[in-house]
Specification:
The complex is a heterodimer.
Chain A: H1 17-45, H2 51-79, H3 85-90, H4 94-103, H5 111-124, H6 139-157, H7 174-180, H8 187-190, H9 197-202, H10 214-226, H11 233-252, H12 258-265, H13 269-276, H14 287-307, H15 314-322, H16 325-332, H17 339-363, E1 373-379, E2 382-388, E3 393-401, E4 404-412, H18 417-425, H19 428-434, H20 449-470
Antiparallel strand pairs in A: 1-2, 2-3, 3-4
Helix pairs in contact in A: 1-2, 1-10, 2-4, 2-5, 4-5, 4-6, 5-6, 10-13, 11-12, 11-13, 11-14, 11-17, 14-15, 14-16, 14-17
Chain B: E1 19-21, E2 26-30, E3 32-33, E4 36-37, E5 39-40, E6 47-48, E7 53-56, E8 63-65, E9 70-79, E10 85-93, H1 111-120, H2 133-137, E11 145-150, H3 159-182, E12 186-192, H4 196-205, E13 212-217, H5 226-234, E14 247-251, H6 252-264, E15 270-276, E16 284-289, H7 294-301, E17 309-313, E18 320-322, E19 335-340, H8 355-359, H9 366-371, H10 376-382, H11 392-396, H12 403-415
Parallel strand pairs in B: 1-16, 11-12, 11-14, 12-13, 15-19
Antiparallel strand pairs in B: 2-10, 3-4, 5-7, 6-9, 7-8, 9-10, 15-16, 17-18, 17-19
Helix pairs in contact in B: 3-4, 3-6
Chain lengths: ~475, ~425
């Protein structure tokens, strides 16, 4: 018997790329249905929109994958005239790009803008690099960033991220609200406007069409990891890094555990981590590379959220890290695996993350609100202020010369005369002026502690107030 | 991480007992086995006996042994596996079964006697490397641990399992002898987990000698790879040879041939080969003489069930594709598989999923190696020479890219053979 020559091995796994993509598509379905429910059904039930508004989200989400597929087909069939155009398109999975693109856009994006985004995603994001497998940047993100930079202002002017039901509740996404607050903010200002943390977890907060539900993304992550479709290390490390860094930032400002939870449940972080950071083509292939990629994504997201004007950090972080994939794979593919070689980069990352979060935490302190302190009047450099003392309000005129206090004049006080005498005797007010740069360490007057502390706080609060005004 | 789970496909060939086939019309004995070349001075029409020494390898002093009695018909060049060609002696069987040795029990007392006997009887490792067994035992270091490899992690193959099932007493007997000669401290028989039948017979017969233990390994591929076995059983790692850690690994088929050499004075002339696959009518294990054509054995056990078959020798993962079944069986053949209507999968674009790296047992990066073919400096850093050709990367790849062949090309490139 003669036999046909075949390539070995003769055993191949039943898994293939198309099956992986089908599973990815399946895991996105609950998210699509949820966004239909949130952006279509809820407004419709509450009579905020008509039948067109009900169907708009689903039309919006479905038109993009169809259009992306059509674009690639046209390109391969009519522009470069490949004979097996339909096969190429079938193995290139443009619909995944299209679907993710539409899910991360604001609901008020006009369909025409969405279609422009598809063209950018497919051509600039994918085809100019040579098609699937060769692109450097995540194509869906290229399209989204293009839309948000070119049409962001326009989209915001027609409603931005809010669907027709949501503008009743509040005025912006949690992260743009976060940006508008001075300092880090607190539970009242960050979470209360949107109800409670459950709304964040389940996704009933304003945001992009499909990325708001933390819990659905988590379910998709578990499904995809069990089926080994995605590189699970990236999202796990990404989320953990953001969580821990936010925890440090929160602790510095004595915020509770809700703060890191808020951080990982907003801004499409979970959606980005599960569906975009794990895009196989544009993420590292080596294990160490994936670990470092995840940690750096987390660091960058926290940095971009806190230190730039852009409220969203996820998309920019992923696009930035896409550029470093080749480098990370070089680090990760070192043939000899030793604890030294793996440990040093990881420990360096952890130290970097801790330092950055401490810096952010200390820079963005919440302003200290002292209810006993009041600014009565500001005239040129003279601040008329009041502070509650032992017997009532102490009123004073504090004159600044540049950044420094020139003089403090007590206008009115109700402190016990004998105690106040002690303060005057010690020349306490002049010593406050003298030590104004080191006010916390100025000694109080013994025997008149409460009164001298009140004076001290008054000077301190005035200095802080002036500093903030200048900023 | 020790490996991945594969479909077993072993059931079909291990239900019936080992069949014997010792009457081939012709046998073809190769004079060239990889690195080892044999010298033979026989002429056409010379008479030979079964088990007679007919030549010698100058490199390692191993004898060449005739596997049948009869006369030399001539010399022929035959392709042995997918590439290598070798000159073979063709011997015609006269079916008289004249023995070139006397059947008797050798009394072995010392290490030297043992090593000389297994050299003289031509015992070669039957696990695929063609490495003479006496060279393994001829070492200055103490052998403290002996691991008997009966794991058979490749799908389809069942010959080691059948040997344990049918010849366990013989194996234990020779192991006890070897433990005494070499002062071995512990001896492990490694079989694949969940082999309930083996577990039973092993646990009932092992209590006599406390030094012989049996281990069940996880059902993973490549669990039978020596590095994995040492890691799993002894929790240690070695640099180049297991003997660095005073460990010696031998295949169970080899141990059985040592038994025959010691207690029956029989040279290595036959082995058990699994004939299996969906394309064979009666899959079973057959004891065959070296040099027998595959076609003769298949005809003897019942033939193929259809015309269009893909033939594989030595397991579907590491084995070779046979372009014809008119090829003689040699030492490394442990299995012959016929698969009908084999469909080759279509290669698509790599999407960099990283599965080949995640699952590689030697921790190299097949996808990066294949991307860097042609870039010698980069390739050297990626170290494709560590590859053991287990084929997991090609198996696991969702795009069906044949990564093992690409790693092989890369190896050739940096080793200077293009």
């Amino acid at each position: 018997m003669e036999s046909v020559k075949k390539n070995r091995p003769f055993f191949k796994s039943s898994n293939n790329t198309s099956l992986m993509m089908k599973r990815l598509l399946l895991s996105l379905m609950p998210i699509v249905l949820f966004s239909f429910y949130k952006n279509g059904i809820i407004p419709y039930i509450n009579n905020k929109t008509d039948i067109f508004g009900l169907l708009y989200p689903i039309i919006f989400i479905l038109i993009s994958p169809l259009f992306c597929t059509l674009l690639e087909y046209i390109y391969y069939k009519f522009i470069i005239r490949k004979k097996d155009a339909s096969d190429i398109v079938k193995n290139s999975y443009p619909y995944i790009t299209g679907l993710i693109l539409s899910l991360i856009l604001p609901i008020n994006t006009p369909i025409l803008v969405l279609l422009i985004g598809c063209v950018i995603a497919i051509f600039i994001g994918k085809i100019i690099y040579g098609g699937i497998g060769k692109n450097i940047f995540n194509p869906a993100l290229v399209g989204t960033i293009f839309i948000l930079t070119m049409y962001g202002t326009y989209i915001n002017s027609v409603g931005g991220y809010l669907n027709s039901y949501e503008d009743v509740i509040t005025s912006a996404t949690p992260l743009s609200n976060f940006k508008s607050i001075e300092g880090i903010g607190d539970y009242e200002s960050l979470v209360k406007p949107y109800g409670n943390l459950n709304n964040f977890i389940f996704g009933f907060i304003p945001g992009s069409i499909g990325e708001t539900s933390f819990i659905l993304c988590l379910i998709a992550f578990i499904y995809l990891s069990c089926k080994k479709v995605i590189k699970w290390k990236i999202p796990v490390l990404y989320i953990i890094t953001v969580f821990l860094m936010s925890y440090i930032i929160g602790s510095v400002n004595s915020l509770g555990i809700w703060y890191p939870v808020f951080s990982i449940a907003t801004g499409g972080l979970m959606f980005g981590a599960v569906f975009m950071a794990t895009d196989p083509v544009t993420s590292p292939v080596t294990t160490l590379g994936q670990v470092l990629y995840g940690i750096f994504l987390g660091i960058l997201t926290v940095v971009f959220r806190h230190l730039t004007n852009n409220p969203e950090g996820v998309m920019i972080s992923i696009l930035t890290m896409n550029m470093f994939v080749i480098l990370l794979d070089k680090i990760g593919s070192k043939d000899k695996v030793s604890i030294k070689k793996i440990g040093i980069p990881i420990i360096a990352c952890i130290i970097l993350a801790t330092v950055i979060s401490l810096i952010i935490g200390n820079t963005y302190k919440n302003p200290i609100i002292d209810n006993n302190f009041n600014i009565i009047n500001i005239e040129n450099n003279i601040y008329t202020v009041s502070q509650k003392g032992r017997g009532g309000l102490i009123k004073a005129e504090i004159t600044f010369d540049g950044d420094d206090i020139e003089s403090i004049k007590i206008i009115e006080h109700n402190e016990t005369a004998s105690y106040y005498k002690l303060i005057e005797n010690k020349d306490y007010i002049n010593s406050l002026i003298k030590n104004q740069n080191n006010i916390d360490n100025t000694d109080t007057v013994s025997g008149a502690t409460i009164s001298s502390n009140a004076l001290k706080d008054m000077v301190k609060n005035t200095i802080n107030y002036r500093k903030e005004q200048k900023l | 991480m020790l490996g991945i789970k594969l479909e077993k496909k072993k059931k079909m060939s291990c239900v019936s007992d080992i069949v014997s086939y010792d009457s081939p019309k012709y046998v073809y004995i190769p004079l060239n086995l990889g690195k080892y070349e044999y010298e033979c001075s026989l002429d056409v029409n010379d008479k030979v006996k079964c088990g007679e020494k007919i030549g010698i390898c100058n490199k390692n002093n191993m004898p060449l042994i005739s596997t049948v009695s009869g006369k030399v018909v001539g010399y022929e060049e035959i392709t042995l596996n997918d590439k290598e060609k070798s000159l073979c002696i063709k011997i015609e069987n006269d079916f008289k079964d004249e023995l070139g040795y006397t059947e008797c029990e050798n009394s072995i007392k010392t290490k030297e006697e043992f090593i000389e006997l297994i050299r003289d009887k031509g015992i070669i490792g039957l696990s695929g490397s063609n490495y003479p067994t006496y060279m393994k035992y001829n070492t200055n270091s103490d052998i403290k641990t002996l691991i008997i490899n009966a794991v058979e992690c490749e799908p389809y193959v069942t010959c080691d399992y059948m040997i344990i099932k049918e010849h366990l007493d013989s194996i234990l007997k020779v192991l006890e002898l070897m433990i005494n000669i070499f002062n071995i401290e512990e001896c492990f028989i490694a079989v694949k987990g969940k082999n309930n039948y083996l577990k039973e017979i092993l646990s009932t017969s092992l209590h006599e000698n406390k030094k012989i233990k049996f281990v069940t390994t996880p059902n993973l591929y490549p669990m039978g790879w020596s590095r994995n076995l040492v890691r799993y059983i002894k929790h240690t790692d070695y640099k180049k040879h297991t003997i660095e850690k005073n460990i010696l690994i031998n295949n169970v088929s080899t141990i059985y041939s040592i038994y025959e050499a010691v207690f029956k004075n029989k040279p290595l002339i036959e082995r058990v080969v699994t004939f299996t696959g969906e394309g064979i009518n009666n899959p079973c294990n057959v004891k065959v003489k070296f040099g027998t054509m595959f076609s003769d054995v298949v005809k003897h056990i019942g033939g193929y069930n259809s015309e269009n078959q893909v033939l594989i020798s030595s397991g579907p993962m590491m084995g070779y594709n046979l372009f014809s079944d008119n090829i003689p069986i040699n030492y490394q053949t442990n299995c012959f598989i016929a698969i009908p209507d084999y469909k080759e999968s279509i290669e698509t674009v790599c999407i960099r999923c990283g599965k080949c790296i995640e699952n590689c047992p030697v921790k190299i990066s097949p996808v990066l190696i294949s991307e860097n073919i042609g870039n010698k400096d980069e390739l050297k850093k990626l170290n494709p020479n560590k590859c053991i050709e287990c084929g997991i990367c090609s198996y696991i790849c969702p795009a069906k890219i044949n990564l093992r062949e690409k790693v092989k090309i890369a190896r050739g490139e940096i080793n200077g053979k293009c």
